[in-house]
Amino acid sequence: MIIDKTSPVPLYYQIEEAIKLKIDKGEWESGSMISSEREFAENYEVSRMTVRQAINNLVNDGYLTRRKGKGTFVSGKKIEQKLLGLTSFTEDMKARGYKPASKLVSFQTIQANHQIAKVLEISHNNEIYEIKRVRLANDVPMAIETTFVPAQLIHLQESHIQDGSLYSQVEQAGFHIDYATQSLEASIAREKESEILEIAKGAPVLLIQRQTYLTNGKPLEVVHSVYRGDRYKFMIDMKR
Ligand code: 16G
Q1: Interface ipTM above 0.90
Q2: What average pLDDT score do residues 212-237 get?
Q3: Between 20 and 30 A from 130 (CA), which of 93, 112, 117, 209?
Q4: 37-44 helix and 48-60 helix, angle to the nearest 10 degrees
Q5: Cα separation of 98 and 140, whole Å?
Q6: How many CB atoms lie within 10 A of CB 1?
Q7: Which of 81, 84, 88 gets mutated to test ligand 1 (max ligand atoms within 8 A of its CB)?
Q8: Ligand 1 centroid from CA 201, angstroms
Q9: Percent helix, strand, coil in the chain (nearest 5)?
Q10: 239 phi and psi, to 5 degrees?
Q11: What CA dihedral angle connects 126, 171, 165 and 228, to 10 degrees?
Q12: Over 80: is that where the pLDDT of 82 sits?
């Protein structure tokens, strides 16, 4: 790692980029422990403050993970998800070679409030399924998802949702999923979310909302999800 003290580029930034390069090239494997701040500072003859700033930024960006009382480790690679096809969590994880699973937090029929009823194009107080799931990849929690589906549209089986895929259940019932609109915004994990996602309170998360429609034009679902910012990266291809 070469640090150029005569460069106008801030030292912390040079250290940050050098560490990133080592991780991206695979020289530092995921799960391995990195040197302590003191060792970095001695090796590169910079202050510990400078090292700390570089490491803090890499922790915030998800490259490194701090474990209390143990040290700082190289994180696993982020899951890259293309924002292209309309796919389910199960399909996305399988396509990347991860084992998808869900922890069903709750499955119940409730009355739609005004806001949800409007999006699902049903009357206020009509029954909807409210499904809360923690979505896991290789047993690691990735997202918390709350899904609302009109009960008059389809009969959903709790056991199928528990063990499998909502989209496959919808398709097995003879419906065709057509398109969705989705928004994505940055936020921070609240206490409960941080516990479920096994991240620090205040860690970055991505809030995603999806509204999905069937080929017959009817709304299928409204989904509110909280994705881990340190494990997820959404990719988009653009053409001009
Ligand atoms: C994805 C969708 C969600 C859908 C779910 C179905 C996003 C942001 N959300 O998580 O809208 O309900 O897949 O997954 O991608 P499943 O078929 O595996 O249950």
Answers
A1: yes
A2: 92
A3: 93
A4: 120
A5: 10
A6: 12
A7: 88
A8: 25
A9: 30, 35, 35
A10: -135, 140
A11: -80
A12: no
